[in-house]
Specification:
CATH topology: outer membrane lipoprotein receptor (LolB), chain A
Helix content: 10-25%
Shape: globular
Order of helices and strands: HEHEEEEEEHHEEEEEEE
Strand order of the largest sheet: 7-6-5-4-3-2-14-13-10-9-8
Number of helices: 4
Distance between the termini: 40 Å
Radius of gyration: 17 Å
Length: 212
C-alpha cells in the first residue's frame, strides 16, 4: 500500500460524525489505582455503558496514526458525531493534504485537498472506492467511545478495574484502551489502539466535547 493510500485510509478510518456538539475541557480521569471488586465492577460497567450510550452528540480532537507492513502515516483529527449524521476533518503532515468526510443527501461524501469529491451510499463503500479495502468503520464509531459495537459478538472483554473497557476483541480486531478522560458526567477514552494482522491504528485523544 502506498503512503498516499495509507493517508487516505487514515482519513476514512476517522469518519463517522455531526457538527454542533457542546465542548468542554476534559478533566483528569478518576484514579486508576482504586480497583473495584468484580461485583462492583460489573455494576459500574452497566452504569458506564448507559452513560456513554446516552450521549446526544460528541466531538473529539486528537491525533491518529496508521501503520501497515509497508507504510506508516499520521495526522491530526477532528471528529464530530451525532445520532445519524457525522462530519470529520483530517489534516495530514508532510504536504499530504486534508480531507473532509460527512453525510449528504446522497449518502456519504469526501472532499480532499486536490479538489476531488467522492460519493458513496455509506462509509464502508466509500472507503472501498477510495482505497480498495473493506474495514469495519461502523464499529469504530463505538470503539472510540469505549463501547463494543452493538450486535457483534465479543470474543474478549476485559475491564480496567473501574468499570471501563481495557481490552476488547470483535471480529478479527483487537482494541486496547490506555487511560480515560473525565468530561464531567462520563469517562471517555484517552488512547485507543486498534489492530489486526494487517493494520495498526492509534488514536490519541486530546479533547472531548459532549452533549447529553
Amino acid at each position: 500500500m502506498s503512503v498516499t493510500s495509507v493517508g487516505r485510509l487514515a482519513a476514512l478510518l476517522a469518519g463517522l460524525v455531526l457538527a454542533g456538539c457542546a465542548s468542554q475541557l476534559p478533566k483528569p480521569a478518576l484514579p486508576e489505582s482504586v480497583a473495584l471488586t468484580p461485583q462492583e465492577e460489573a455494576v459500574a460497567w452497566v452504569a458506564h455503558q448507559a452513560a456513554v450510550t446516552g450521549l446526544g452528540e460528541w466531538v473529539l480532537h486528537g491525533r491518529i496514526s496508521v501503520t501497515t507492513e509497508d507504510d506508516s502515516w499520521r495526522g491530526k483529527l477532528r471528529w464530530q458525531q451525532g445520532a445519524q449524521d457525522f462530519q470529520m476533518y483530517f489534516e495530514a503532515p508532510m504536504g499530504l493534504g486534508a480531507a473532509r468526510l460527512s453525510t449528504s443527501s446522497a449518502g456519504v461524501v469526501m472532499q480532499v485537498s486536490n479538489g476531488k469529491t467522492y460519493y458513496a451510499a455509506d462509509v464502508e463503500d466509500l472507503m472501498y472506492q477510495f482505497i480498495g479495502m473493506h474495514l469495519p468503520l461502523a464499529g469504530l464509531r463505538y470503539w472510540v467511545t469505549g463501547l463494543p459495537q452493538p450486535g457483534m459478538p465479543s470474543s474478549v472483554v476485559e475491564y480496567d478495574g473501574a468499570g471501563r473497557l481495557a481490552h476488547l476483541q470483535q471480529a478479527d480486531w483487537d482494541i486496547h484502551y490506555r487511560g480515560y478522560l473525565n468530561t464531567g458526567d462520563v469517562d471517555l477514552p484517552k488512547k485507543v489502539f486498534i489492530e489486526n494482522s494487517r493494520l495498526n491504528v492509534r488514536l490519541v485523544i486530546e479533547h472531548w466535547g459532549v452533549q447529553t
